[in-house]
Design a protein that fits this description.
Length: 713
Amino acid sequence: MASEPDMGEIEQVPTTAWHLFVERDICSNVQEGLDHEWLATNGLGGYAAGSIVGATTRSYHGLLVAALRPPVERTVLVTKIDETVEFPDGHTLKLGVNEYQDGTIDPQGYNYLTKVGLEGDIPFFMYALGDMLTLEKRVWMEYGQNTTYVQYMLHGSFDEESEKSAHKMTLTLYPFCLHRDHHSTTQGSHDWHFLVKNEGNCCRVRAYEDAATVTMIAEPEASFTTTGEWYWNVLHRCDQKRGLPDHEDVYQPGYFRIQLTPGKRITLVLSTERESTGEFGRQQHEESVGQALLRHHLRSKQLLAVANPSVINLSQQDPVLARLVVAADQFIVARPDYTTDTTTGKPAIHLAPDRKTVIAGYPWFTDWGRDSMISLPGLLLSTGRYSEARGLLRAFTSFTQNGLIPNRFPDSGEAPEYNTADATLWMFHALNIYLGATGDWPLLKELFPTLCSIIDWHIHGTSYGIGMDPQDGLLHAGVVGVQLTWMDAKVDDWVVTPRHGKPVEINALWYSTLSLMESWAVRLSTDATQYSQLRSQVRQNFAARFWYEEGSYLYDVVDVEGRAGENDAALRPNQLFAASLTRDLLSDAQTRCVLQQVTEHLLTPAGLRSLSPDDPAYHPHFNGGRKQRDGAYHQGAVWQWLIGPYIDVHLRVHNDQNALRALLQPIIKQLWSTCLGTISEIAEPEPPFAAAGCFAQAWSVAEILRSWLLTAE
């Protein structure tokens, strides 16, 4: 067995993986607290997110980041709320935290923050208001709506003096509003004219005439006071580290004032939904909120029940799996049909229950074809969500163009982009796993004409130089200035890892696809001869072309940029797919050699490096501005999702589940160490392997979830 790198002392996964929380030593440490984040989502692509201490450390942070054209056009409407508690004796505690460009942090509410955690998938925050009182805050979103609930409850009891006082304890809520794309920042000006409509316990805000209206509603006893103030030069420290615009100005339209009573819930509803907000702000306000909370909890329970129907309480039986199941749900979002309302002539959105797509990562990615297909087995099949998997496959095949499914859908809702050599081939793999789980052969029959057309396009050549070389049956891909594989970093005109030629994983996928088409054609009683002949040709040439005898592993690309016999010997994880997707491309001895080389050079506690440290192009750090980060993105940075194919190959060679479960545990720890309850996109390639990139990544969660089940005893 190949020796595995020293992982250090592997800690056991805590039993609190479901009821996870961050203790006071982190909460009350402002530097630690600013580095920890939370996330809530709404199934539309919209979300709420922030640092656990309350400051916005990214332009992407907000309590209501609405997907105005689901799942895209993510728009920051409410960035945060600062809270002030006033006691009966007149003294106040400010619970908010804002960091400014000059280094000032004011107020410093982290001093009162004692605990942050997740109740299911709902973030909660506990503030100590003295010896006898604690204020709890929780945030969640309505599934299928651009609506956020921010709820408070006072725990404990008043002292005798406060009980007798004629003055009451009050909570003042200061919302900060904007209207901008979540990738951008706002420069404030007194020339801005926010339209603020004060309706007593309700406030409606529009940044300008044609902007989306955000409605903020509290209980009838609450009162809203209009102020209209700008807060200048708020720092986004995470964006500063990434070399992005790092500060902005935020608008405070006014404040809500509400009486605090122990045991009573107080909820501020933030929404762009015109119809659904009518049930709030009346005498049954908190009752309506309670029903919304119940809906949320019931949906979470249903997700767990569907994921494992044989277990009564999955969160107790396997808290890690339960946590990953609800984390997976955050990425599965609607991709509606857009039509024109025949009455008004305006665009209309039709949400179909099973027409789904996958947000590749929060906070900045939209839905990508490659990420959706790689993630589908873990996000949807391992969790029992078969009808949604079916809908996702049908949705993406409906966008097929010249034999390709979309690479990604732009955030502003334009036509999809098709610059991908692998997403379409990953779709065949995802469909095969789906068919194995469901036996849904009618879907195969429905899609088969499209699948046949896709193969024809690949044989004869399609966009971006993607096509089959008739001499060896292998796929080549690449045109100048375009990135086509998953190693797709590009800065201006610089494609960092072009990989033009015949990439190893593309051809492993091509062979797998031809094998599937052969078996599917036989099942559907159609001619399988072409697929059988091509599969044999690829199998005959794959190992001969890709095996690098001197290094005992596979070339990453052969026939680089179309130059026959010029091969790229960079030691990368892409070669794993030649052994994980199929068992007959490599000999057993070659598979063992590949696993050994990947283990010795690429395996880390956080996942797999994208390039061997021995390579001159290796970057030991992932930091700096965009050019520096993208230059390291696939030149060393660790990718968590790659632990999935690594485990597939390891199981094939050694069949040692216990060793692999131990490998997963350091990654599982991230569930309560970076963004609560989820797993990031990448990690630094050297110790301490700090999380980086998107704080929540679909294929990271998907492959860890799938691997967790694979390694179960």
